[in-house]
Amino acid sequence: MTNLLEIEKLHTGYDGVAVVRDLDLTVNAGEVVALLGPNGAGKTTTLTTISGMGDIISGSVTIMGRPVPRLRHAHRVARWGVTHVPENRGILFQLTVRENLEMAKTKGKVDIDRAVEYFPALGSLMHRRGGLLSGGEQQMLALGRAIVAEPKLLMVDEMSLGLAPVIYEELMPVVRRIADETNAGVLLVEQHVDLALEVADRGYVLSHGDLAMHGTASELLADRHLLDASYLGVESLDD
Length: 239
Ligand code: ATP
Fold this sequence. Notes:
Elements: E1 3-14, E2 17-28, E3 32-36, H1 43-50, E4 55-63, E5 66-67, H2 74-79, E6 82-85, H3 97-102, H4 112-118, H5 135-148, E7 153-157, H6 165-182, E8 185-189, H7 193-199, E9 202-207, E10 210-216, H8 217-222, H9 224-232
Parallel strand pairs: 3-8, 3-9, 6-7, 7-8
Antiparallel strand pairs: 1-2, 1-4, 4-5, 9-10
The structure holds adenosine-5'-triphosphate.
Adenosine-5'-triphosphate binds at residues 14, 19, 37, 39-45.
């Protein structure tokens, strides 16, 4: 397996104050890795740091052997084949679905059919403006943009946010399919732990900026007490 992403002893945060401390994390090609933890644990900060939008205080983030610059160089990291679907989905509301897809790639032709293959519903929405789509359709478009960008490393932040369970339960397996079919590594931030671990190979749980636990998806699911305790920020796991 190729090591796509390697994070070592990472301290990252804002204005020199670390909100994520001493993080070690890896993502391999073709693997789905869940990054879990309660609100404010540091999940989004970790993703933005990997994307080159954060301030690395110490430690390192290496993507396919290349170190992510310490201070904001998101455009450079994107060119390495890193695609980040942010919490707000990152679609342009004034543009049509087709235009949003066409803009997803910095160079080369976009294969729009590929997005439709994953999300047939997008096929009949090509001329609709992004802002007029439902939440579920917007998330399909956000993932469709990621698919046509053909990333080597895909990061998806809170895919289920604001969506009905029936919608996100259908969308979640798509990240598994992307990893399986394209050999991309996927780092998935998600509040719905069980759902994320259903599609993930491995997971990491952050609690107040520290790594509380990590392991294979089945190990994490089997250690329910520890998993729940990490979420509650319980200091002593004997409680
Ligand atoms: P959520 O699910 O609520 O987004 P999260 O695990 O993604 O949680 P982060 O958004 O990474 O957590 O936030 C981690 C910590 O960093 C929080 O204490 C938050 O208040 C702080 N933080 C986030 N963004 C900034 C910012 N731009 N400036 C200063 N502090 C920030």
